[in-house]
């Protein structure tokens, strides 16, 4: 079922048999702000930051497009021209429009974002994004469609930045698709021991050379098993957390930081064509 209590306010996707619900806020970057199953909160949300439109949201699922991560001096070069683009791009900061809703085969909602004068100045392409959220039982599926309406090939990266709620990080167990990672700002490839040092002030690691298209985190303190699946477009899985904060992020990205300059794992939508990517998350309570 899909409901919206007030026009232009959040939409609620619900699945009664599993007591699951997802809250989507189109006007605030198309973000999913909440996901619950059997009264268990899956996502963290900093409500004070969410209430201030001048701040980026910390919580839920911010959407990343047309870059993931940051660029050196927030700058990339394309066809000999330089452009300024802030960390993670602009999709998470712009209002999206609801274009479809459905209660068949799960509760779903599709949001659209189109290029405009504001985006053209920092990303010189005409495009249309259509992102669909589907709640089926305790699984949230996300289908992302990127259409190039320009007359030249459109390079981009896309990803999500989900903030998962956690009460005790020492009770987390990880089954990740790679044991090779790079620390933000460093080129050295390190070997993952299977554990994170949560006494560190910050952990910002990009796992590379992914061997499978899934990652599993088990929160033993809540008997919660979270599985993230993603298609073969996704090359990088970023783990980020801050000491003293009740969240961790596990972020599938199609391309690494600075892909717009390096071309590494950059997706290309040819003129008039659409590139689709898919991510799904399942929350199981044991």
Automatic annotation (TrEMBL):
Top-rank taxon: Bacteria
Biological process (GO), any one: carbohydrate metabolic process
Family matches, as Gene3D superfamilies: 2.70.98.10
Signal peptide: none
GO MF term list: carbohydrate binding; isomerase activity
InterPro entries linked to this entry: Aldose_1/G6P_1-epimerase (IPR008183), Gal_mutarotase_sf_dom (IPR011013), GH-type_carb-bd (IPR014718)
Entries under Pfam families matching the protein: Aldose_epim (PF01263)
UniProt protein name: Aldose 1-epimerase
Native organism taxonomy: Bacteria, Bacillati, Cyanobacteriota, Cyanophyceae, Oscillatoriophycideae
């Amino acid at each position: 079922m899909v409901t919206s209590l007030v026009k232009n306010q959040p939409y609620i996707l619900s699945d009664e048999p599993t007591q699951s619900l997802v809250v989507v806020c189109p006007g605030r970057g198309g973000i999913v702000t909440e996901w619950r199953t059997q009264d268990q909160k899956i996502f963290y949300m900093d409500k004070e930051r969410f209430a201030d439109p001048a701040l980026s949201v910390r919580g839920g699922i911010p959407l990343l497009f047309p870059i993931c991560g940051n660029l050196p001096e927030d700058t990339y070069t394309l066809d000999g021209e330089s452009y300024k683009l802030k960390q993670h791009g602009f999709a998470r900061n712009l209002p999206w429009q609801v274009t479809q809703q459905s209660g068949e085969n799960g509760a779903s909602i599709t949001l659209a974002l189109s290029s405009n004068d504001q985006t053209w100045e920092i990303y010189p392409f005409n495009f249309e994004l259509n992102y669909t959220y589907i709640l089926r039982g305790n699984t949230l599926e996300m289908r992302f469609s990127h259409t190039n309406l320009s007359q030249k090939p459109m390079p981009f990266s896309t990803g999500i930045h989900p903030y998962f709620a956690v009460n005790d990080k020492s009770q987390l167990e990880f089954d990740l698709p790679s044991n090779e990672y790079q620390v933000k700002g460093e080129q050295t490839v390190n070997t993952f021991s299977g554990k994170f040092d949560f006494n560190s002030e910050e952990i910002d690691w990009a796992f590379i050379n992914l061997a499978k298209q899934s990652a599993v985190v088990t929160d033993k303190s809540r008997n919660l098993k979270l599985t993230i699946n993603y298609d073969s477009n996704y090359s990088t899985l970023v783990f980020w957390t801050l000491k003293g904060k009740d969240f961790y992020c596990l972020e599938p990205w199609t391309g690494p930081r600075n892909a717009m300059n390096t071309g590494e794992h950059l997706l290309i939508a040819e003129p008039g064509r659409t590139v689709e990517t898919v991510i799904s998350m399942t929350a199981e309570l044991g």
